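W.,

You were right to be curious about this one. When I first looked at the sequence I had no strong expectations either way, so I just let the prediction run and decided to look at it fresh. Below is the sequence, 449 residues in total, followed by the output.
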Amino acid sequence: MIKKIALMSLVLSQLAISCSSDDSSDGNTTETEQSLSEQIANIVKQPYSKLSPADQKTKLEAEANEMLVQLDKTKNLSALETIENLNRLLDISTPDIFSGLNDNEAEDIINTAGVYGIYTWNNTEETWIKTSSTSELKFVFPAKESQTANNASFSTNSVSSDIKVAVEDSYNWQTDTQTNDYFFLPTSADAVLTIDNVKAATFSQNAKYTNGNETPNEFGYKMSLNDGYSWEISSKKASENTAKALFAYNGKNLIEFNSGSTANIDELLQGDALAQYRGKANGLITLMDNFVIVAEMDFAAEAADKAALKTSNVYPEYPDNTDPNSDFKAFFNAENAYRKKLSEGTVANDNKNMKLILVSKKDGTKIADIVQRSESDGTDQITLPVWSADDNFWYNWTDEGEAFTKQYYTEVSYLKFGDNTEVEMGVYFSTGFDTFKSKFDDFIQSFQK
């Protein structure tokens, strides 16, 4: 879980890129104007809940189910179903919108500029029929997979930047040459989805580039559905990168993500894994009015500690099978010690550099810290090799050797409550959350069609 949230925070704060807004004009500082670090500092100061872990579990499920009531409504959104069908049709027959570029998806359509044409789906031939246009890029197609009539359209207009991007069109293996297509990235783009001539969704995107770099310094994206849902994400690349994401229904926030990172984006995008480029990251994940997950992560320190652990904990050298003085028992004992130290070091690293706290926003109290613990992950029973004086060799397939137990370890997430009670997360959420789990499984499965 820690790794997933850490990755989410780093990726969003590095690659998803917005301008923060300031709605105050009187100079007074309000809660909404606090920096991310200030918000986190204030949350961390909150006291722990006085509820017992069992009572807290009951309360958590009730509030989690409240959130799913809202999320459940997204399963049957007509606009999302139509976008999914557009992607399906693009997979069946890929129109060459760049006059050479293949494998376009719906998200590619809004992210290009200076590309025009009207593409109409031919259900009989299962292909796109192109009509020339000098002003728009538009797709006309059935809104649902079960339909054959073209009752939906997706059109986009954009303003080009001066950032020219090369995309591989074809590659000749015999001559080792590549043919590219080119297009310009947009500084702004707007798209509209209509179903039965009624606007179903709008999309907008903006970006700012510097020094000819394909990665924007600032980026914003918003999708608004006529069903009342909206999704927006924005970020800004700087010495301290910021990123925000928000999923809302009729103006009420369902899920909000706010993150910051000091990572050196340009160096990381070059594929350089050096620890000093990773920096620190922190984030707030807010679920409706109920929960906040606070994340404070030092990726640079985590990478340095991981490298130090690897250096200090060297895997033992396997004994020589032809040396009568080889000590296989000492080797396997050292191997067990190696695994134990590696797991315990990984846990210590995570607990030091990846701090997560679950908070009740309504109550203004901390529910629990999320910590890692090293635990046994099973064993293997083996017999130690036996020396053969006749063959001058250690044989390990004989039953004559001494019995030995190989030990394995794993890292497990725990909830640590205010009374220092620790409960393994898998156990804590395995019972008492049956209704929530059932609803959540249904919710996820609805998007796996």
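Here's what jumped out at me. The radius of gyration is 28 Å. And, maybe more interesting for your project: DSSP finds ten helices and 18 strands in the chain.

Coffee later to discuss?

I.
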